[in-house]
Amino acid sequence: MCYIKAEDIFPKEIMDLIWEYVEGKNIYIPKKEGNRKKWAETTNTRKEIKIRNEAIYEEYNNGIDKESLAKKYFLSRKSIDRIILQEKRK
User: Fold this and answer.
1) By its UniProt entry, which Pfam families does this protein fall under (predicted)?
2) What are the two backbone dihedrals, phi and then psi, of residue 7, each rounded to the nearest 5 degrees?
3) Which of 2, 12, 41, 80 is the most exposed place for a label (fewest CB within 10 A)?
4) Whole-angstrom Cα distance, residue 54 to residue 32?
């Protein structure tokens, strides 16, 4: 994340208002509600997790125990249980 100096983008009148509330502090200005993206919308992460979860479920159905799956995929046993339950419901 890069920072932009507020003084470089806001007019003096707005800077005077900002200084009344948060002088010398970092603030975060979120995107407008309509401009927000869903988690992993711009990457392949959702697809990769879907493929991983399907593989976990297939391996479980082929007899691999949950502890081995947890170690193989570096997940907790609880996460493996959750993934198997979700995949079973599909």
Assistant:
1) Mor
2) -65, -25
3) 2
4) 35
